[in-house]
Amino acid sequence: MSGDLHSRMLAAHARPDPAALVELYTEAADCANDLDASCFFLTHAYVFALEAGAPQAGQLRRRLLRHGREE
Asked: For the packed helices 35-52 and 57-66, what is the interaxial angle rounded to 10 degrees?
């Protein structure tokens, strides 16, 4: 994960900004070097999306299902 992405994540946590957290953790998942790291970030994005009632929750869940990380 780039330093810029990490800084943006910390700032979104500090505000807090649930919509930004969903986007940033999804971005981190897309940039991850391996499946475990990607799914780690996807799980966080999914939880933030569920908490916020964000429309991305369904898509994030489908991605986790594809990788056997959600039932």
From this structure: 150
Enter the tokens of residue 33: 């070097």
Q: What is the pLDDT of residues 16-62, one digit of tens each?
A: 999 999 999 999 999 999 999 999 999 999 999 999 999 999 999 99
Q: What is the pTM of this model?
A: 0.92
Residue 54: closest CA among 27, 25, 23: 23
CA-angle at 10, arms to 17 and 41, nearest 5° = 85
In 3-state terms the chain splits into helix, strand, coil percentages (rounded to 5) of 75, 0, 25
Residue 37, amino acid: A
